[in-house]
Protein backbone atom coordinates (compact mmCIF):
# COMPACT_ATOMS: atom_id res chain seq x y z
CA UNK A 1 0.00 0.00 0.00
CA UNK A 2 1.03 3.59 -0.58
CA UNK A 3 2.58 5.54 2.28
CA UNK A 4 0.00 7.92 3.71
CA UNK A 5 0.97 11.60 3.80
CA UNK A 6 4.47 10.91 2.46
CA UNK A 7 6.08 13.19 -0.12
CA UNK A 8 5.48 11.88 -3.65
CA UNK A 9 8.18 9.63 -5.06
CA UNK A 10 7.17 10.75 -8.58
CA UNK A 11 5.76 14.15 -9.53
CA UNK A 12 4.75 14.74 -13.13
CA UNK A 13 3.98 18.40 -13.71
CA UNK A 14 2.51 19.60 -16.99
CA UNK A 15 4.53 17.40 -19.34
CA UNK A 16 3.85 17.39 -23.06
CA UNK A 17 5.34 15.12 -25.71
CA UNK A 18 4.77 15.01 -29.45
CA UNK A 19 5.97 12.66 -32.17
CA UNK A 20 5.86 14.85 -35.27
CA UNK A 21 2.37 16.35 -35.43
CA UNK A 22 0.89 13.75 -33.04
CA UNK A 23 0.65 15.03 -29.46
CA UNK A 24 0.91 11.89 -27.35
CA UNK A 25 0.96 13.66 -23.94
CA UNK A 26 -0.91 16.90 -23.40
CA UNK A 27 0.17 18.91 -20.32
CA UNK A 28 -0.11 15.81 -18.16
CA UNK A 29 0.17 16.05 -14.36
CA UNK A 30 -0.09 13.45 -11.61
CA UNK A 31 1.75 12.27 -8.51
CA UNK A 32 2.69 8.83 -7.23
CA UNK A 33 3.15 8.07 -3.53
CA UNK A 34 5.97 5.86 -2.19
CA UNK A 35 4.99 2.16 -2.35
CA UNK A 36 1.89 2.96 -4.40
CA UNK A 37 0.75 0.41 -6.98
CA UNK A 38 -0.61 2.39 -9.93
CA UNK A 39 -2.30 0.90 -13.00
CA UNK A 40 -2.45 2.92 -16.23
CA UNK A 41 -5.27 1.84 -18.53
CA UNK A 42 -6.83 3.19 -21.71
CA UNK A 43 -6.96 2.65 -25.47
CA UNK A 44 -3.86 2.07 -27.56
CA UNK A 45 -2.12 5.32 -28.43
CA UNK A 46 -3.37 7.16 -25.35
CA UNK A 47 0.15 7.81 -24.01
CA UNK A 48 0.51 5.14 -21.32
CA UNK A 49 3.69 3.48 -22.59
CA UNK A 50 5.21 6.86 -23.45
CA UNK A 51 4.94 7.86 -19.78
CA UNK A 52 6.94 4.79 -18.75
CA UNK A 53 9.57 5.38 -21.45
CA UNK A 54 9.92 9.02 -20.35
CA UNK A 55 10.38 7.96 -16.71
CA UNK A 56 13.06 5.51 -17.86
CA UNK A 57 14.71 8.36 -19.89
CA UNK A 58 14.22 6.40 -23.12
CA UNK A 59 12.24 9.35 -24.49
CA UNK A 60 12.63 13.03 -23.69
CA UNK A 61 9.89 15.58 -22.99
CA UNK A 62 8.96 18.73 -24.88
CA UNK A 63 7.86 20.72 -21.82
CA UNK A 64 7.02 20.36 -18.16
CA UNK A 65 8.94 18.81 -15.28
CA UNK A 66 9.33 15.39 -13.68
CA UNK A 67 10.66 14.94 -10.15
CA UNK A 68 11.81 11.58 -8.80
CA UNK A 69 12.42 11.60 -5.05
CA UNK A 70 12.46 15.39 -5.27
CA UNK A 71 15.18 15.53 -7.93
CA UNK A 72 14.42 16.86 -11.40
CA UNK A 73 14.70 14.04 -13.92
CA UNK A 74 15.51 16.00 -17.06
CA UNK A 75 17.09 19.14 -15.60
CA UNK A 76 19.96 19.73 -13.20
CA UNK A 77 21.38 22.70 -11.25
CA UNK A 78 23.69 24.95 -13.22
CA UNK A 79 24.40 28.58 -14.10
CA UNK A 80 22.35 29.81 -11.14
CA UNK A 81 19.26 27.88 -12.22
CA UNK A 82 18.38 24.66 -14.02
CA UNK A 83 19.90 23.42 -17.25
CA UNK A 84 19.28 20.29 -19.34
CA UNK A 85 20.51 17.13 -17.60
CA UNK A 86 23.78 15.64 -18.78
CA UNK A 87 24.33 11.89 -19.19
CA UNK A 88 25.87 11.56 -15.72
CA UNK A 89 22.73 13.03 -14.11
CA UNK A 90 20.43 10.85 -16.23
CA UNK A 91 22.43 7.75 -15.32
CA UNK A 92 22.20 8.57 -11.61
CA UNK A 93 18.43 9.09 -11.86
CA UNK A 94 18.01 5.93 -13.96
CA UNK A 95 19.43 3.77 -11.15
CA UNK A 96 16.27 4.45 -9.12
CA UNK A 97 14.01 2.95 -11.78
CA UNK A 98 13.66 -0.48 -13.37
CA UNK A 99 11.54 -1.37 -16.39
CA UNK A 100 10.19 -4.61 -17.81
CA UNK A 101 9.25 -4.45 -21.47
CA UNK A 102 6.58 -6.12 -23.54
CA UNK A 103 9.09 -8.10 -25.62
CA UNK A 104 11.59 -9.25 -22.94
CA UNK A 105 14.71 -7.72 -24.61
CA UNK A 106 17.02 -10.42 -23.22
CA UNK A 107 20.52 -10.76 -24.66
CA UNK A 108 20.13 -13.92 -26.80
CA UNK A 109 23.82 -14.84 -26.71
CA UNK A 110 24.07 -14.75 -22.89
CA UNK A 111 22.80 -17.28 -20.38
CA UNK A 112 19.96 -16.50 -17.99
CA UNK A 113 22.28 -15.76 -15.07
CA UNK A 114 24.53 -13.60 -17.27
CA UNK A 115 21.49 -11.58 -18.36
CA UNK A 116 20.68 -10.90 -14.71
CA UNK A 117 24.23 -10.15 -13.50
CA UNK A 118 25.45 -7.97 -16.38
CA UNK A 119 23.94 -4.62 -15.33
CA UNK A 120 24.99 -4.71 -11.64
CA UNK A 121 28.54 -5.61 -12.65
CA UNK A 122 28.79 -2.94 -15.35
CA UNK A 123 26.89 -0.06 -13.78
CA UNK A 124 27.52 -0.57 -10.07
CA UNK A 125 30.85 -2.39 -10.08
CA UNK A 126 29.40 -5.38 -8.21
CA UNK A 127 31.82 -8.32 -8.03
CA UNK A 128 30.80 -11.34 -10.07
CA UNK A 129 30.38 -13.64 -7.04
CA UNK A 130 28.10 -11.12 -5.30
CA UNK A 131 26.14 -10.44 -8.51
CA UNK A 132 25.62 -14.16 -9.10
CA UNK A 133 24.52 -14.74 -5.51
CA UNK A 134 21.91 -11.99 -5.80
CA UNK A 135 20.88 -13.20 -9.26
CA UNK A 136 20.22 -16.71 -7.92
CA UNK A 137 18.04 -15.25 -5.16
CA UNK A 138 16.04 -13.33 -7.76
CA UNK A 139 15.77 -16.30 -10.11
CA UNK A 140 14.54 -18.39 -7.20
CA UNK A 141 11.93 -15.72 -6.45
CA UNK A 142 10.62 -15.86 -10.03
CA UNK A 143 10.74 -19.68 -10.02
CA UNK A 144 13.65 -20.11 -12.44
CA UNK A 145 16.68 -21.00 -10.34
CA UNK A 146 16.95 -24.27 -12.29
CA UNK A 147 17.27 -22.32 -15.58
CA UNK A 148 20.28 -20.20 -14.55
CA UNK A 149 22.60 -21.76 -17.15
CA UNK A 150 19.97 -21.97 -19.92
CA UNK A 151 20.00 -19.71 -22.96
CA UNK A 152 16.99 -17.50 -23.76
CA UNK A 153 16.17 -19.58 -26.85
CA UNK A 154 15.55 -22.56 -24.56
CA UNK A 155 12.86 -20.72 -22.56
CA UNK A 156 9.15 -20.22 -23.07
CA UNK A 157 7.78 -16.70 -23.42
CA UNK A 158 6.59 -16.71 -19.82
CA UNK A 159 10.00 -17.84 -18.60
CA UNK A 160 11.73 -15.13 -20.66
CA UNK A 161 9.48 -12.50 -19.12
CA UNK A 162 10.22 -13.77 -15.61
CA UNK A 163 13.96 -13.55 -16.36
CA UNK A 164 13.38 -9.97 -17.58
CA UNK A 165 11.71 -9.17 -14.25
CA UNK A 166 14.64 -10.67 -12.33
CA UNK A 167 17.06 -8.65 -14.47
CA UNK A 168 15.22 -5.39 -13.71
CA UNK A 169 15.21 -6.22 -10.00
CA UNK A 170 18.96 -6.91 -9.98
CA UNK A 171 19.71 -3.17 -9.74
CA UNK A 172 17.46 -2.86 -6.63
CA UNK A 173 15.30 -0.05 -8.04
CA UNK A 174 12.87 1.89 -5.87
CA UNK A 175 10.41 2.19 -8.75
CA UNK A 176 9.40 -0.58 -11.17
CA UNK A 177 7.69 0.04 -14.50
CA UNK A 178 5.81 -2.76 -16.27
CA UNK A 179 4.81 -2.18 -19.89
CA UNK A 180 2.20 -4.66 -21.13
CA UNK A 181 4.34 -7.49 -19.77
CA UNK A 182 1.78 -10.19 -20.64
CA UNK A 183 0.54 -8.99 -24.04
CA UNK A 184 3.14 -10.93 -26.06
CA UNK A 185 2.46 -14.20 -24.20
CA UNK A 186 0.24 -17.13 -25.05
CA UNK A 187 -2.84 -17.08 -22.79
CA UNK A 188 -1.73 -20.08 -20.74
CA UNK A 189 1.56 -18.35 -19.87
CA UNK A 190 0.02 -15.09 -18.65
CA UNK A 191 -0.80 -16.35 -15.17
CA UNK A 192 2.77 -17.36 -14.33
CA UNK A 193 3.99 -13.81 -14.99
CA UNK A 194 1.09 -12.20 -13.10
CA UNK A 195 1.88 -14.48 -10.14
CA UNK A 196 5.39 -13.00 -10.02
CA UNK A 197 3.97 -9.49 -10.02
CA UNK A 198 1.69 -10.50 -7.14
CA UNK A 199 4.69 -11.73 -5.21
CA UNK A 200 6.51 -8.45 -5.80
CA UNK A 201 3.44 -6.60 -4.55
CA UNK A 202 3.30 -8.63 -1.36
CA UNK A 203 7.01 -8.97 -0.56
CA UNK A 204 8.60 -5.64 -1.56
CA UNK A 205 8.16 -1.95 -0.81
CA UNK A 206 8.71 -0.86 -4.39
CA UNK A 207 6.55 1.71 -6.09
CA UNK A 208 5.06 0.05 -9.18
CA UNK A 209 3.50 1.50 -12.34
CA UNK A 210 1.71 -1.01 -14.55
CA UNK A 211 0.45 -0.47 -18.10
CA UNK A 212 -1.88 -3.34 -18.92
CA UNK A 213 -4.95 -4.55 -20.77
CA UNK A 214 -5.45 -7.25 -18.11
CA UNK A 215 -8.28 -5.38 -16.40
CA UNK A 216 -9.03 -8.04 -13.81
CA UNK A 217 -5.43 -8.02 -12.68
CA UNK A 218 -5.32 -4.21 -12.69
CA UNK A 219 -8.40 -4.19 -10.44
CA UNK A 220 -6.84 -6.59 -7.93
CA UNK A 221 -3.28 -5.22 -8.11
CA UNK A 222 -3.66 -1.46 -7.99
CA UNK A 223 -4.15 1.03 -5.18
CA UNK A 224 -5.27 3.50 -7.84
CA UNK A 225 -6.27 3.44 -11.51
CA UNK A 226 -5.56 6.17 -14.06
CA UNK A 227 -7.66 6.03 -17.24
CA UNK A 228 -5.95 7.75 -20.17
CA UNK A 229 -7.27 8.98 -23.48
CA UNK A 230 -5.48 11.21 -26.00
CA UNK A 231 -2.61 12.05 -23.71
CA UNK A 232 -4.71 13.14 -20.76
CA UNK A 233 -6.09 11.55 -17.60
CA UNK A 234 -9.84 11.31 -18.14
CA UNK A 235 -10.62 9.68 -14.79
CA UNK A 236 -8.78 8.37 -11.75
CA UNK A 237 -9.76 6.61 -8.55
CA UNK A 238 -9.68 3.40 -6.58
CA UNK A 239 -10.20 0.23 -8.66
CA UNK A 240 -13.81 -0.31 -7.56
CA UNK A 241 -14.69 3.30 -8.36
CA UNK A 242 -13.27 3.08 -11.88
CA UNK A 243 -14.41 -0.41 -12.81
CA UNK A 244 -17.78 -0.56 -11.04
CA UNK A 245 -18.91 3.07 -11.07
CA UNK A 246 -17.03 5.03 -13.77
CA UNK A 247 -18.21 8.65 -13.90
CA UNK A 248 -16.93 9.70 -17.32
CA UNK A 249 -18.69 8.57 -20.50
CA UNK A 250 -15.32 7.88 -22.19
CA UNK A 251 -14.36 5.50 -19.37
CA UNK A 252 -17.75 3.78 -19.53
CA UNK A 253 -17.43 3.25 -23.29
CA UNK A 254 -13.90 1.84 -22.99
CA UNK A 255 -14.87 -0.63 -20.25
CA UNK A 256 -17.95 -1.80 -22.14
CA UNK A 257 -15.72 -2.69 -25.10
CA UNK A 258 -13.29 -4.49 -22.81
CA UNK A 259 -16.09 -6.53 -21.24
CA UNK A 260 -17.59 -7.29 -24.66
CA UNK A 261 -14.19 -8.66 -25.72
CA UNK A 262 -14.38 -11.17 -22.87
CA UNK A 263 -12.06 -9.56 -20.34
CA UNK A 264 -12.79 -9.70 -16.62
CA UNK A 265 -12.88 -6.34 -14.84
Automatic annotation (TrEMBL):
Q: What is its main location?
A: membrane
Compartments annotated for it: namely: Cell membrane
Domain of life of the native organism: Bacteria
Q: Which UniProt keywords apply?
A: Amino-acid transport, ATP-binding, Cell membrane, Membrane, Nucleotide-binding, Transport
Tell me which residues make up the ABC transporter domain. 10-255
Q: Which InterPro entries match?
A: AAA+_ATPase, ABC_ATPase_HisP-typ, ABC_transporter-like_ATP-bd, ABC_transporter-like_CS, Ectoine_EhuA, MetN_ABC_transporter-like, P-loop_NTPase
Cellular component aspect of the GO annotation:
plasma membrane
Q: Which gene encodes it?
A: ehuA
PANTHER family registered for this protein in UniProt: AMINO ACID IMPORT ATP-BINDING PROTEIN, GLUTAMATE_ASPARTATE IMPORT ATP-BINDING PROTEIN GLTL
Q: Name one GO molecular function term.
A: ATP binding
Query: Any idea what this protein is called?
Result: Ectoine/hydroxyectoine ABC transporter ATP-binding protein EhuA
Q: What is the lineage of its organism?
A: Bacteria, Pseudomonadati, Pseudomonadota, Alphaproteobacteria, Hyphomicrobiales
Q: Which organism is it from?
A: Phyllobacterium phragmitis
Topology relative to the lipid bilayer, per the entry, is: Peripheral membrane protein
NCBIfam families named in the record: ectoine_ehuA
Specify the signal sequence span. Answer: none
A Pfam family matched by this chain, by name?
ABC_tran
The family annotation for this protein states: Belongs to the ABC transporter superfamily.
- Family annotation (PROSITE patterns): ABC_TRANSPORTER_1, ABC_TRANSPORTER_2
Amino acid sequence: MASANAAPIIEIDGISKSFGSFKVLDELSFKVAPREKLALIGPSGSGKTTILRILMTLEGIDSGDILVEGDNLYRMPGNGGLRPADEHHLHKMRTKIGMVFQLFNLFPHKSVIDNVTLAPMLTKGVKRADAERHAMELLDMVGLADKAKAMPAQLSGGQKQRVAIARALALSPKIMLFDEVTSALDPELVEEVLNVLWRLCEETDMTMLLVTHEMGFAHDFADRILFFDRGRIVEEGKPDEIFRHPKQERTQTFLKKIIAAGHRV
